[in-house]
Amino acid sequence: MADNYLEKRYDEVFGKKTLVKKVGRPLDSLFLENRSTRGYESDFIVREEVLRKIIGVNTKIASALNQQVLRFKIVLSDKAPLLLQHVKMGGLLPELHLPLKGTEPNAFIIVCSTIKENRNVDIDLGISLQSMLLKAVEIGLNGLIIGSFNREKISEAFDLQFSPLAILAIGKSKEKIRLKEISETDNHKYFRQEDNTHVVPKVKVEDLIM
Asked: The pTM is what?
């Protein structure tokens, strides 16, 4: 087959203009900027419309068996202190008592499920949380998946119809975060340097492939 045959045939049928694609940010850059953030700019207030835009990605992403059972509760700055009473952040650095005073997130998305948690719900949860975080990064924000929280207290405080599975903190990052390549046998624990840079070890690709 001649070189570029398919491309030339595509041009003949659809025209060259259809080959021009809108160039956005490279996906790898979004991955790199999508870091678990535990310190935020306190004077930056996340608006409800921004959280709605982030939640909106769930209308476009995959869902196991297409059940679409996840539901979302928006928590804004006026009720953020109430939520923070019942969550834990930075589980591997308990001595720091994160978030540090004055760097607390002021916006959250509580993720619930309309059915009992199971394997398919967990698949949906992972897809949803990652997709929402990438959307947040795309618009210049960052976030944190919070899995350590008091379900009963959160359900009661926010009058939730369904049991919460995870909480997503959203805000403008105030942290310096750096990735460090490691081998699979190295220590995976994240840590803080003296300059307060948050270092996250990541296993190199060669060790991930079996």
From this structure: 0.86
